[in-house]
Write a structure and sequence with these properties.
Helices cover about 0% and strands about 50% of the residues. The chain is mostly beta strands. Strands 2, 4, 5, 6, 9, 10 and 11 form a 7-stranded mixed beta sheet that branches. The protein is globular.
């Protein structure tokens, strides 16, 4: 069982930055694709960014392109979501999710159904 823990959320003013971290306990991330999702009050959860197990492929939803950067550090067994130029509409609970990748597994990208393991989320609030 993969357990994921997000951290780094908080309250920030519009235009500010935050870096979210996704860590796992008892597992290495090496063979996992990781996705970041968010859910704002009253809205459905949406995919924000994803990174392949190799780190060679990254995806972003259009609304965060050029502002968010996903990365992974295998030595630290961490995945990060660096968020710049935050906007009030970025306010949400952010979740990281993981999917074990085998040779036959299609990269799940921003598809919520493609991920098996989920963290509890971290709140990001951007004030105007």
């Amino acid at each position: 069982e993969v357990q994921l823990v997000e951290s780094g959320g908080g309250l920030v003013q519009a235009g500010g930055s935050l870096r979210l971290s996704c860590a796992t306990s008892g597992q290495t991330f090496d063979d996992y694709a990781i996705g970041w999702f968010r859910q704002a009050p009253g809205k459905e959860r949406e995919g924000v960014s994803a990174i392949s197990s190799s780190g060679g492929t990254t995806l972003y939803v259009d609304s965060v392109k050029g502002r968010f950067t996903i990365s992974r550090n295998k030595a630290e067994n961490m995945v990060y979501l660096q968020m710049y130029s935050l906007k009030p509409e970025d306010t949400a609970v952010y979740y990281c999710a993981a999917r074990r990748i085998y040779y036959y597994t299609v990269f799940p990208g921003l598809r919520e159904s493609g991920y098996r393991y989920w963290g509890q989320g971290t709140q990001v609030t951007v004030s105007s």
